[in-house]
Design brief:
heterodimer, A: 437 residues, alpha/beta, Rossmann fold, 3 domains, six-stranded parallel sheet, 15 helices, 10 strands, B: 365 residues, seven-stranded mixed sheet, branched-chain 2-oxo acid dehydrogenase activity (chain A), oxidoreductase (chain A)
Chain lengths: 437, 365
């Protein structure tokens, strides 16, 4: 309970007793204790706690906020050398370049939506470190349930530029076969569950998937569920937290707290201590809160969280604090509800890419010319890919009947054959050349 | 929610009923035992199968459908959950996505409205929207439709609601054979299945053939069953309305009218072939359901007939017998009148047959 700012009177004896229990050793001691209720200690099935005779309304202010773990400061210096993850130059360069790739691709695809080339897009600006730092600490066998703003996790896992752009264009090489809006990526190969639009439904599902993993003999994989602080207001979030705790599921509930749920700022979203504040006391879940703009902090914390969930078969609540630099989506203009100067700070000195760049500069790992070339090269690749993806054929139109059931039922087979006949009879009216034969 | 009250109603509704002449000779099985043994078989057959829901484990299920299974299979296969339909339906969908085969019990389907986003937006659509990458082999099951004395919020039929949605399969068993065979098929099916039971028949013992108890006894999804053949009129029904139809057919027989009774078993996919063939024979049709009429199962059958050549086989317009278009009244007498009764079916049949009633009777004499 290191986050207690001060001991309120009624908490005093709990703290003392817990200290005592710790000394004599863990859960067994607690059980022994509860079977022998003493005068000042209650033994209700719903709670074991001391009785007090002084009335006291516990205030939120009685608790100090959960501190934010940080490895690297704004200027890219590591405050406590023991916390340096000691990653080699190659790994750090991949982290940096993946963040740059994501950032560059986002800028161009955002523009391409503005030009009417794709219907929708969501950028990841400002959250690159939480994606890359967390993905780097995981194993490929760990299953990812994303919300929709986790493209960086896919970048780290090797989803290629052409795969991203083909998905946004819904062409014949789109793994989703053109059945979803842009940014609803999914990849079985990369253990990334296809994004689903309804908010927070991924949360109990991720917990369910973690439960399934736990049942496997010698399980060595966990489930990571990403969600925003706004999504955490949905009832699904409560269910996910509660089930993860009660069923003991190896899952990391990763909250990307970027300060905004579309236009709703976090101070209107909740009154408690963020999402981390709900973990230990609210749901009895081990919790960590980190600076989401510090790729090393996210990396270290994620490594520890992964180790913990697999060793203990218990969940972890992980809150990464950052700032959503971009608009919510292409359907939003965030300057209507926040000052441009505020955005600018988070887009410069506080930007995760700038921080990692400064670290690399101190290390002597940063060559301005090489990196500028890299950005140019990525821009070129993305633009070229857009031109290619735009021209690719759409999936065969017959596919619209597929995937409703594992085996196509008769009424759909019938409809498909009617459509085939219709198109055969009126093919001059249909843009058949745009579709795969 | 009136959970305790529901359970009391269930036990008071247990009464033996059989429409078969051979009832005494044949082996008997209650619907509860049929469901319980189907779950037991499938838990034993496939270790990916597990049951979750409120009170399904230690308490043996609110309606005792999972009786003994927790003791037999343990905490990992039969799981009691906190009270959140949205939560455990989501957990079940996730587990199915990850390769398990959950059987998710709703204490009643009325509570599934809390979880409907998971059933429709997630379970029914994920296979399509992931372009076949993620399938959701899951069974959502529980008692559906009007029970007895539990008022409007606990007396709804969800057949039409879920049958509206592509991606789902919707089953509505009537007797023990249906319950056992269809539940086993549902658990083995690769797609999400909505399995609508009827609490009022849980305790009813039905005669069953010997093979129904076989480990691999399956009833195919998407096929209706002719419960009683007849040549004068077709009564098509599902769930407990099959019972009403059989009783009406017995009444009609006294008047010299031979009604064919079809038990739909599966609402989606709908076995139109069996309905059409019957109508081509009888040229008259009455649909029977305990759900509301608008956009109901009967309405769908009418539409399908009009879209088919079978329409020209009809000698009279189709008549729908459905639940009254109001929230279910709590008063006992009103409740009984809000659902199609035997005499309603008899009257509907006589009206549909019109002047031909006497002729049919005369011909049978």
């Amino acid at each position: 309970m290191s986050f207690l700012r001060k001991s309120v009177n009624l908490m005093g004896s709990v703290a003392r007793r817990q200290q005592h229990l710790k000394v004599i050793g863990g859960a067994t001691a607690a059980r022994d204790f509860s079977s022998k209720p003493s005068d000042d200690y209650a033994n209700f099935p719903g709670a074991k706690a001391p009785f007090v005779s002084k009335l006291n309304l516990i205030q939120p202010e009685d608790y100090a906020p959960i501190p934010i773990y940080r490895v690297m400061d704004q200027d890219g210096y590591i405050a406590d050398e023991s916390q340096d993850p000691q990653l080699g130059r190659e790994v750090v360069e991949k982290m940096f370049r993946d963040m740059v790739l994501l950032n560059t691709m986002d800028k161009i695809l955002y523009e391409s939506q503005r030009q009417g080339r794709i219907s929708f897009y969501m950028t990841n600006f400002g959250e690159e470190a939480s994606h890359i730092g967390s993905a780097a600490a995981l194993e490929m066998r760990d299953l990812i349930y994303g919300q929709y703003r986790e493209a960086g996790v896919l970048v780290w896992r090797g989803f290629r530029i052409d795969q991203f752009i083909d998905q946004c264009y819904g062409n014949t090489d789109d793994l989703g076969r053109g059945k979803q809006m842009p940014v609803h990526y999914g990849s079985r190969e990369l253990n990334f569950v296809t994004i689903s639009s309804p908010l927070s439904t991924q949360m109990p599902q991720a917990v369910g998937a973690a439960y399934a993993m736990k049942l496997r003999p010698d399980n060595d994989a966990c489930v990571v569920c990403y969600f925003g602080e706004g999504a955490a207001s949905e009832g699904d979030a409560h269910a996910a937290f509660n089930f993860a705790a009660t069923l003991g599921c190896p899952t990391i509930l990763f909250c990307r707290n970027n300060g905004f749920a579309i236009s709703t700022p976090s101070h209107e979203q909740y009154k408690g201590d963020g999402i981390a504040g709900r973990g230990p006391m609210g749901y009895g879940i081990t919790t960590i809160r980190v600076d989401g703009t510090d790729v090393f902090a996210v990396y270290n914390a994620m490594k520890a969280a992964r180790e913990y969930v697999l060793k203990e078969n218990k969940p972890v609540v992980f809150e990464a604090l950052a700032y959503r630099v971009g608009h919510h989506s292409t359907s939003d203009d965030s300057t209507a509800y926040r000052p441009a100067e505020e955005i600018e700070i988070w887009n410069s000195v506080e930007h995760p890419i700038s921080k990692l760049k400064r670290y690399m500069v101190h290390k002597g790992w940063f060559d301005e010319t090489v990196e500028n070339e890299y950005v140019k090269d990525i821009r070129k690749k993305v633009l070229k890919q857009i031109a290619v993806s735009e021209k690719k054929l759409k999936p065969n139109w017959r596919e619209m009947f597929e995937g409703v059931y594992a085996e196509m039922p008769d009424h759909l087979i019938e409809q498909r054959s009617e459509l085939e006949k219709h198109i055969e009879a009126h093919k001059e009216h249909y843009p058949l050349k745009n579709f795969e034969k | 929610m009136l959970r305790t009250r529901l359970i009391q109603a269930a036990s008071s509704a247990q009464r033996a009923f059989s429409t078969s002449q051979k009832a005494l000779a044949a082996k008997q099985m209650t619907v509860r035992d049929a469901l319980n043994s189907a779950l037991d078989d499938e838990l034993a057959r496939d270790d990916r199968v597990f049951i979750l829901g409120e009170e399904v484990a230690q308490y043996d299920g609110a309606y005792k459908v999972s009786r003994g299974l927790w003791k037999k299979y343990g905490d990992k296969r039969v799981i009691d959950t906190p009270i959140t339909e949205m939560g455990f339906a989501g957990i079940a969908v996730g587990a199915a996505m990850a390769g398990l085969r959950p059987v998710c019990e709703f204490m009643t389907w009325n509570f599934s409205m809390q979880a409907i986003d998971h059933i429709i937006n997630s379970a029914a659509k994920t296979f399509y929207m992931s372009a076949g990458a993620v399938n959701v082999p899951i069974v959502f099951r529980g008692p559906n439709g009007a029970a007895s004395g539990v008022a409007a919020q606990h007396s709804q039929c969800f057949a039409a609601w879920y049958a509206h949605c592509p991606g789902l399969k919707v089953l509505s068993p009537y007797d023990a054979e249906d319950a056992r065979g269809l539940l086993k098929s549902a658990i083995r099916d690769p797609d999400p299945v909505v399995f609508l039971e009827n609490e009022l028949v849980y305790g009813t013992a039905f005669p069953v053939a010997d093979n129904v108890a076989d480990k691999d006894f399956l009833v195919p999804i998407g096929k209706a069953k002719i419960m009683r053949p007849g040549k004068d009129i077709t009564l098509v029904a599902h769930s407990k309305a099959v019972e009403t139809s059989l009783l009406a057919a017995a009444e009609l027989a006294k008047k010299g009218i031979e009604a064919e009774v079809i038990n739909l078993r599966s609402i989606r996919p709908l076995d139109t072939a069996t309905i059409f063939a019957s109508v081509r024979k009888t040229h008259h049709l009455v649909t029977v359901e305990n759900g509301w009429p608008q956009h109901g199962v009967g309405a769908e059958i009418c539409a399908r007939i009009m879209e088919d050549q079978t329409f020209f086989e009809l000698d009279a317009p189709v008549w729908r017998c459905a639940g009254v278009d109001v929230p279910m009244p709590y008063a006992k007498t009103l409740e009984a009148h809000a659902l199609p009764r035997v005499q309603d079916l008899v009257e509907a049949t006589l009206k549909v047959l019109g002047g031909k009633v006497g002729k049919a009777a005369a011909a049978n004499k």
